[in-house]
Amino acid sequence: MVEILGEWQLEIEAEVSNQEEFTNLIRDIKKEFPDIILDYNILQVTKEHKLDYFPMGNEFLNPLETN
Known about the structure:
This protein is mainly alpha-helical. Helices cover 27% and strands 0% of the residues. The chain has one domain (1-67).
């Protein structure tokens, strides 16, 4: 669940293999909902960084367990 801040009423996230697949997805969505979609913005994410909440590994989660 995402709370959207700003002028948008809906946010769609999609992972696609290539630009052609993305173009087809946009085309299909616009074709399916022409009376609802008045405008849209595209944000292309090309790299996603990993956030490690447990940098010390399993020993932090199981301090009594020996290796």
